[in-house]
Amino acid sequence: MANRSILILDDDAAAGQTIQWMVESLGFEAEFVTRPEQFFLRLEQKNFDILTIDLVMPKLDGVEIMRLLAEYKCRAKIVISSGMGTRVLEAAQRSALEHGLSILGVISKPISREALCSLIGDGSECDRPTSAKEQSAYGEVFEITPWDLQNALDRYEFILAYQPKIECKSGLTVGFEALVRWKHPKRGIVMPDRFIPLAENVGLIDVLTEQIFEQSLEWFSQSFPQSDAKLSLNLSAKCLVDIQMADNLSALCSRYRIAPERVVLELTETSAMVDPILSLDLSTRLRVKGFQLSIDDFGTGFSSMVQLVRLPFSEIKVDKSFVMQALNSSESRSVVKSIVELGHSLGLLVTAEGVEDLDTLNYLNTLGCDLAQGYFIARPMWGEAACNWVEQRKSLSG
Question: Whole-prediction pTM value?
Answer without folding.
Answer: 0.69
